[in-house]
């Protein structure tokens, strides 16, 4: 197994561990943090796959997905803390 493939496997293993935290997190904040971490791991996976395949377009998609993940996390936390989005 090449180092690049090992990196992909480790990122996927980390995502499984974070998914377990999202499912059994004791509080809603733990679950939101776990969903954010899964989004971050998805961005990392996109970058790794783009590097392995030699496609630079994956980096643009990863940056866009990171921005969406950030905005969604802020919105979700605002909704949880204030019970409204305004």
Structural features, described:
Helix content is 86%, strand content 0%. The protein is built from three helices and no strands. With 86 residues, it is mainly alpha-helical. It has one domain: Orthogonal Bundle (Helix Hairpins).
| Largest sheet, strands/sense/barrel | none
Indicate the radius of gyration in whole angstroms: 15 Å
Instruction: Report the helical percentage.
Output: over 70%
CATH classification, class level: Mainly Alpha
Strand-and-helix sequence, N→C? HHH
Give the domain tally.
Answer: 1
Number of strands: 0
Structural class: mainly alpha
Task: Identify the quaternary structure here.
Answer: single chain
Discrete helix count: 3
Could you give a short description of this structure?
By secondary structure, the protein is an all-alpha fold. 86% of the residues lie in helices and 0% in strands.
